[in-house]
Amino acid sequence: MSQISPNNALPWKIRGLLLIRDQGLLALFIAIVIVFAFWGAPYFLTLPTGISILNAAAIASIFAAGVAVGIMTGVLDLSVPGTAALAGVVTGRLLQEGLPVGLAIMCGLLMGLLVGVVNAVVVLRGFNPLIVTIAMLSVLSGASLLIAGSYNISGLTQLVFMGTRTYFGIPAPVYIAVVLFVILTVFLKFTRGGTRLLAVGGSAEAARRVGIAVNWYRILGFAISGLCAALGGIVTAAYITTAVPSASVGTVFTAMTAVALAGVPFVGGRGSLPRVGLGVIVVATISAGLLLAKVPADWSSVVTGVLLVGGLGLNMWTTNTTSKLLLASGDDGAKRGTR
User: Fold this and answer.
1) Cα–Cα distance for residue pair 266/324, rounded to 1 Å
2) Distance CA 31, CA 29 (A)
3) Where does the chain cross the membrane (predicted)?
4) 5 Cβ neighbours under 8 A, 6+ residues apart
5) Which residues pair with 166 in a beta bridge?
6) Alpha-carbon distance 175 to 167, whole Å?
7) Contacts from 220-223 at CB under 8 Å and sequence distance 24+?
8) Backbone angles phi, psi at 216, to 5 degrees
9) CA-to-CA distance for 79 and 115, rounded, in angstroms?
10) Is there a contact between 73 and 229 (Cβ–Cβ < 8 Å)?
11) Taking a C-beta distance cutoff of 8 angstroms, is the pair 19, 6 a contact?
12) Rounded CA gap, 4 and 336, in Å?
C-alpha cells in the first residue's frame, strides 16, 4: 500500500508530521551519536566501536526483519526466539553428525520455514495469532532442549565463516544482514507479491475483494518470519560457535523496539525495512554508548523498553493526528489516505 510522502500538495502541519514519522529516527540516531561522542569519550567515536555496533546490530536486524515482515502482514510472530533456538540446535546436531556444512544450514533454515507455515495454517483456522505463536514458542523451546539433551552444543567451528570471520575488516554477520535486507526490500517495494503482501496486512477484506489470495500471502508472511528467525539463530550459533537450546526472549523485544522506532504500525499494511535496520542500529548504539559511559548494563534494558513504548506512542500520535488533519482539511490530501 502506498505511503504519503511530504509534498507541496499537503498542508504544512501534515507535512511536518510525516517528516517526523519518516525522518525522526535518523534525527534521533544523529542526536544519540553526538551525545555519546562526548559522554563515552574517548572510546565511543572510534572505528572499532563502530564495527562492534554494526556487528551487534547485524544479528539483531536479522530477527527484526522477520518480525517486521510479519507485522506488515498484520501478525506479530512471538515464536521467533524458539524458532531461532531450534534452527541453531538442529544445525549444530547435524554438524556433529558429520553432515556437510551447507546441508546442515539448509536443514536449519527449512525448520524455520516449516515453523512459519505451521503457525500460519493454525492461525488460518481462526486461532488468535498471539496465542498460537506464544504456544509455538513454548513447544519449540522444549523441542530444542530435547534435541540438544539440555546442553549447549559447542565447538561449531565449521560455522565461523558466517560468524566470527571478517571480510575487508567487516564481520560476516553484517554482510548477511545487508543481503537479507536488500532482498526483502526489493521484494516488498518492487514486486507484485510484496505489494500484495502489504495490501493483505493493510486490509485483508479489501484485498480479498480485489481477488488477492489472502490466505496464501498470510502463509508467506509467516514463512518469511520463520525463515529470518532460523537464519538469525544459525548466525548467532556461528558467532559464539555454540548452539544454545534455551530461547532468548530478549531478541524479540529488541526486534519489536526497532520496528516501533521505524514507524511500522503494528496493525500492518506499510513499513520500511531500511528504517527497521536503522532502528536496530539505534538500539545497538545506545547499548554500546551506555556501556562505554560505564552505565550499569541493566539500564540498557530499561532504555529499550522506554524506546519501545515511545516509538509506539509517536507512531500512534502521528497517524491519528494526520488522519484528523486530513479529514478536517477536506482537500485532496484526504483522498491519498494515511496508510
Assistant:
1) 20
2) 5
3) 25-45, 51-71, 101-123, 130-148, 168-188, 219-240, 246-264, 276-293, 299-317
4) 18, 22
5) 171
6) 9
7) 220/73, 220/193, 221/69, 221/70, 221/72, 221/73, 221/74, 221/75, 221/120, 221/197, 222/70, 222/73, 222/75, 222/77, 222/116, 222/117, 222/119, 222/120, 222/123, 223/113, 223/116, 223/117, 223/120
8) -60, -45
9) 9
10) no
11) yes
12) 7
SS3 263: coil
For residue 9, the model assigns a pLDDT of 61
The three three-digit cell numbers of residue 62, written as one number: 536479522
pLDDT at 261: 81
Helix segments in 213-269, DSSP class H? 214-240, 250-261
Ranges under pLDDT 50 in the chain: 1-6, 334, 338
Give the span between the Cα atoms of 104 and 110, in whole angstroms.
10
**In this structure, are residues 65 and 279 in contact, taking their beta carbons and an 8 Å threshold?**
no
8-state DSSP, 125: T
Strand, helix or coil for residue 18: helix
Residue 71 class from Cβ within 10 Å (0-12 exposed, 13-18 middle, 19+ buried)? buried
Whether the link from the prior residue into 11 is cis, omega within 30° of 0, is no
The x, y and z cell numbers of residue 285, run together, are 548504539
Please report the pLDDT score of residue 142 as a whole number: 93
Report how far residue 52's alpha carbon sits from residue 31's, in angstroms, rounded to the nearest whole number: 19
What integer pLDDT is reported at residue 10 of this predicted model?
Answer: 66
The C-alpha cell 554482510 sits at 175
Residue 97 CA: distances (Å) to CA of 100, 104, 112, 114, 318:
9, 10, 20, 22, 53
Residues paired with 154 in a beta bridge = 242
- 135: CB partners within 8 A, 6+ apart: none
- Cβ neighbors of 272 (< 8 A, separation 6 or more) are 262, 263, 264
Record the pTM.
0.85
The residue type found at 221 is G
